[in-house]
Amino acid sequence: MTTPFIGIDGLACAPGNAQAVGKRDDQQDSFGYSDPADAGFIAHGGMVAIVADGMGGMAHGADASRIAVRTFLDQYALKTRDEPISRALGRALEAADRAVFEFASSVGKERDVGSTLIAATFAQASLRWISVGDSALYIHRDSSLTRLNHPHTLGARLAELVKRGEMSAEDAAIDPDRDALTSYVGAGGISQIDLPAESIPLTSGDIIILCSDGLYRALPEDEIALIVAAATDGQVAADALLANALARDLPRQDNVTVLCIRVAEASR
Q1: How many domains does the chain have?
Q2: How many CA atoms lie within 13 A of 158 on its CB side?
Q3: 220 pLDDT exceeds 50?
Q4: pTM above 0.90, yes or no
């Protein structure tokens, strides 16, 4: 199945998505897109794609990610023509953090329930994003795959210590808490946010990938690159990535969510 193209300032985006529970008992990932039919909003706010990976136990983690996605999209939809995209992204993230924090407090799990969040906007023929946690954003261009956002994990902090010569790579690699999040939505104030000041110009042939860690912990980046390079559009790429991740049959396969948006020249 191919996906329809959505016009973005002279370019067209074909979005696709795929999701699986993996070997977990519950799906704690959530995802969403802004309204692709709202051409008026897309003209200044662009199309938004978002992935969130909940934490805090089965039901609570699922609720946290759903609340994060719904609140973020609802708040971003309030963007006016005069509000810069980066400001709207920050405002929507703050609202999502408050909403998840209030939910966690209501169930007596304050500080123990939260979610990652990666949201990308496709507007003015360019890409902007905001992220918290370890869900990933990649761009595939000219046969090369590049991760664009920075993970907020203890492992990332340990890597900095290794880089500065303050810790050995061997000790960093075996730290039992290296996958622990150092920033997440729902804490009642976010300590680390990835929100670059500059956008990335998009070109025909680019493929943008948003995913939870269940994908990139199952597939190495070189394999992800080969899979999306062979795909004809966003939905085909998302389906292929999910199928290959599950085919690894990892003993503790996490939930997998992947969104792929293929960029092409708009038809005249």
Answers
A1: 1
A2: 17
A3: yes
A4: yes
